[in-house]
Design brief:
A hairpin with a 2-residue loop joins strand 7 (217-223) and strand 8. Helix 2 packs across helix 5 (90-99). The chain has helices at 5-23, 31-39, 43-46, 62-75, 90-99, 121-124, 143-146, 149-159, 272-288, 292-299, 329-341, 391-400, 438-460, and strands at 52-57, 80-82, 111-115, 132-135, 165-169, 184-189, 217-223, 226-230, 243-248, 253-258, 261-266, 309-314, 317-323, 346-351, 381-387, 408-411, 428-433. By secondary structure, it is of the alpha/beta class. It has a 9-stranded mixed β-sheet with strand order 2-3-1-4-5-6-9-10-11, sandwiched between helices. The protein has 13 helices and 17 strands.
Length: 461
């Protein structure tokens, strides 16, 4: 698209705004792009883009997948433009492109990796056309904003450029059907001994065939609608996968069958949620053209970022922080399932409020009745400390699972939660926190670690 004077003026002003924000130590990831689009509505269309663009969207895992892709590319010598420092809506993409362009709007870098908010697809894809478009999965999420997975599916599917090569999850029959005419590559995890014949979750949004509307038959279910299914009426079925993963938890490796060859990668997590994230990144990197050896070397040095997952052992007790997105029943259910399956005697701190004051927080709490809090009704979970301004709401939901009230402790202030831990006879302490509570969760973790250290010192005396 030809650059006009309006665009050049918007670019100059937004670059000045970006520089000013940086000089004052401010995060320049949103405002410069918002300003540029305000001054020039087709700004994203006029600014030059890197030759290769990778977009990552989906309900869960997109930030983690983006981080893995960027880190792996950087480890292999690529200079990557990205928006991981800030916003994943159109203004954030614009800011990233502004920062990665010359004063005349020419791209400085050859490759970009952009995380894209699902609902922002229709504002971004008409101008920023990804070479590879990744979708991790599609689930219910933030019902007040996203309504239902089918609503989000339609937004993304209708917005994707026809030239984009899609990288999709074959185990997710919702996102697997995006933009059916596009070139695509699929990834999946092979049947595991923990898979079930049918979903045990409260919700499964893929029970009915999208073609003929008959009931689907599942060969196996991993969680919710993730698994392998077919329609006995019309033949609709889970697609064949190009990358089939088999995690080996004892050897800590991820075996991937690709083009009749088996590739072996370091397994950087034992959480099924994050195994999917790792597999997504590997599939994209291999499609991009990196060799198995290049990807293996990169993943040998990677880990899940601390704000998403961390684990520390103090005096024989593990302190584990794990993100469990509020307003997202599937993410929470998977984390709850992970906690209940972990061995040993456990205590749990819940920090699921979406923000820390009622003024700015969503008042819609219906999502907690879609989440499988029942998974926390487990004998090995000795105590649950519920923190935050809505602690009583979560307590009511937990009581509905049959958990005895003696196990539940409400603490309005998150930082006070560790004071209610028993600590004695506890093998693992899980701090499950909302997406935007990472900093608070780290503070709670540090206080928990200090309490454990003090306990160990008293024992030594």
């Amino acid at each position: 698209m030809k650059k006009n004077l309006r665009f050049l003026s918007a670019l100059c002003i937004s670059k000045t705004a970006m520089l000013t924000q940086k000089l004052f130590g401010m995060n320049a990831s949103y405002f410069p792009g918002k300003l540029a689009i305000k001054l020039c509505p087709d700004f994203l269309g006029q600014i030059d883009k890197p030759e290769t663009i990778i977009s990552v969207t989906g309900t869960n895992g997109k930030t983690t997948v983006c981080n893995m892709i960027i880190d792996a590319l950087t480890a292999n010598g690529y200079d990557v433009l990205n928006n991981r420092a800030g916003s994943n809506i159109n203004a954030g993409i614009a800011s990233a492109l502004i920062g990665g362009s010359t004063i005349m709007g020419r791209a400085k870098k050859q490759i970009a990796v952009f995380e894209i908010d699902e609902r922002s697809s229709k504002l971004i894809y008409p101008y920023v056309k990804p070479t590879y478009a990744v979708c991790t999965n599609l689930f219910r999420d933030s019902i007040h904003r996203n309504a239902h997975a089918e609503f989000i599916f339609r937004i993304i599917s209708d917005s994707l450029p026809p030239e984009s090569h899609l990288v999709l999850n074959a185990d997710d029959l919702i996102s697997a059907g995006l933009a059916p005419d596009n070139k695509r590559s699929y990834f999946s995890i092979a049947r595991m001994n923990t898979d079930l014949p049918e979903s045990i979750n409260i919700i499964n949004d893929m029970r009915i065939c999208p073609r003929c509307h008959h009931t689907l038959t599942y060969r196996y279910v991993r969680y919710h609608h993730i698994g392998n299914a077919f329609c006995p009426s019309c033949g609709f079925a889970s697609p064949e996968s190009d990358y089939v993963a088999m995690p080996d938890f004892e050897k800590h490796v991820l075996l991937i069958q690709h083009k009749s060859k088996e590739e072996c990668y370091p397994l950087i997590t034992n959480s099924i949620f994050n195994i999917y994230n790792q597999l997504t990144a590997i599939a994209l990197l291999r499609e991009l053209g990196l060799s198995a050896n290049q990807v293996q070397a990169a993943f040998s040095k990677l880990s899940i970022v601390e704000s998403r997952y961390s684990c520390e052992t103090v005096g024989g007790t593990q302190v584990i922080t794990h993100m469990a997105k509020g307003q997202n029943p599937i993410a929470c259910s998977c984390v709850f399932d992970y906690v209940r399956k972990e061995k040993g005697q456990k205590e749990v701190i819940l920090m699921l409020d979406d923000v820390f004051d009622r003024v700015n927080s969503s008042e819609i709490m219906t999502w907690i009745y879609d989440a499988d809090f029942e998974f926390l009704n487990e004998k090995t979970i000795r105590r649950i400390i519920i923190s935050g301004v809505r602690c009583e709401d979560y307590k009511l939901r937990l009581l509905m699972t049959g958990i005895s009230e003696e196990k539940l402790v409400c603490v309005p202030k998150e930082i006070d939660a560790p004071d209610s831990l028993s600590l004695y006879g506890t093998d693992k302490i899980f701090i499950l926190h909302e997406l935007y509570a990472a900093k608070e969760a780290m503070n709670v973790r540090d206080k928990t670690v200090d309490l454990l250290k003090n306990k160990s010192e008293r024992r030594e005396r």
